[in-house]
Amino acid sequence: MSFYVYMLKSLNKKCVTYVGYTNNLSNRIKLHNSGKGAKFTRGRKWKLIYKEKFSTKNQAISREYYIKNNRTLRNYIKNKT
């Protein structure tokens, strides 16, 4: 089973990003956009701007934590798209 770390960018005027991990990327994005994803993502429409694939859940969680806490990397990814 593969796991993905992903970053979403809001389509609202105020650009906000969200980082998460999942084993079913397309379903997870649908959940976020339907208001059934993480509490933070409700009420916004999202666009996938970044993803990485990992073979284990622990690798994905570790990378998600790194990206969430590295504001420079998040801004780089956000501004690149």
Describe the structure.
There is one protein chain. The chain is α+β, with helices and mostly antiparallel strands. It has a single domain (3-80), classed as GIY-YIG endonuclease (3-Layer(aba) Sandwich). It is built from three helices and three strands. The chain has helices at residues 25-34, 57-69, 71-80, and strands at 3-10, 17-22, 46-54. A three-stranded antiparallel β-sheet has the order 2-1-3, sandwiched between helices. The protein is globular and about 35 Å long.
SSE arrangement:
Elements: E1 3-10, E2 17-22, H1 25-34, E3 46-54, H2 57-69, H3 71-80
Antiparallel strand pairs: 1-2, 1-3
Straight-line distance between termini = 28 Å
Strand order of the largest sheet: 2-1-3
The low-confidence parts are none
Number of strands: 3
Index terms:
single chain; 81 residues; alpha+beta; GIY-YIG endonuclease; 41% helix; globular
Short description:
By secondary structure, the chain is α+β, with helices and mostly antiparallel strands. Helices cover 41% and strands 28% of the residues. It has a three-stranded antiparallel β-sheet with strand order 2-1-3, with helices on both faces.
